[in-house]
């Protein structure tokens, strides 16, 4: 075991504070990663404040991890010391079920092991990326292309793959009209990725405050959802609406913006239950769907895609002692567009 520095929430809704945690020894198939940067995801806040249900404390959040390999186990074949790697939302899965065999580890039938706020196969709690080092099985890390800076690559391990996976699955590309609902940490990546895939991209945001940013990032159009005329003008327009918001929606209103056979895909997860009148789905054979991150192979594909197209996340780099302030700013939608912790400051 090794003792490393970290920032942890000692209890639900408590401010995060500097502490130390134990990392397991480097096993046969493990790699030790010197974490350089860790993104702050809205889901970190949901979990640290038990918005999604009972959680495990103390909690070290963080599943947008970018760093460098500093030690490898005797059986490791994929990585060597000095490699630039990333770790996303999970660090293990059963490896045997039909979904794991298809590279869909995020949908593991037995449940994958989350990077934090979970118990590993030995019953020990997992701790995330708000720390200086992490030990993971080589099969659950991905390689970060040299052309991507580690700081802008870190958020791709959640925000990037969370938007890339559904856009690929629902065939975003030339000839498709894609709307991205919400222009935040997830939404800004959805805009970049959908644009790079060749789709015609529209941002649907509460206001026009971020319109200039959206157009710079690749949106063709930008509309305010606070304006009732938006729903009249855009009725029956989109093949795909990617909803990144974590608040309840008027689903009937947004489903009305889809073409026949269109899909409203949710990647944001509200803490409250939502309601739906099914007639909003029946007319037009529409789909209300959800998507959760991506598998390891698809995450690597996403990183390579972003590198090929020359972009990472839009970030604001912060010190570790600014984490609690950053949480409040995320809740106030005061970030363009992802906070990233410089873990050298932990």
UniProtKB/TrEMBL annotation:
Enumerate the CDD domains for this protein. Answer: CAD1
Q: Which SMART domains match?
A: PKS_ER
Needed cofactors: Zn(2+)
Entry superkingdom: Bacteria
| Entry annotated with the keyword Secreted | no
One Pfam match, by short name?
ADH_N
TM stretches of this protein: none
The record ties this protein, via InterPro entries, to: ADH-like_C, ADH-like_N, ADH_Zn_CS, CAD-like, ER, GroES-like_sf, NAD(P)-bd_dom_sf
Q: What is its EC number?
A: 1.1.1.2
Report keywords, A-Z: Metal-binding, Oxidoreductase, Zinc
Please list the residue ranges annotated as the Enoyl reductase (ER) domain. Answer: 14-341
The reaction(s) this protein catalyses = a primary alcohol + NADP(+) = an aldehyde + NADPH + H(+)
Family membership noted in the UniProt record: Belongs to the zinc-containing alcohol dehydrogenase family.
Classification via PANTHER family: ALDEHYDE REDUCTASE
Protein name, please? alcohol dehydrogenase (NADP(+))
Q: Which organism is it from?
A: Streptomyces hebeiensis
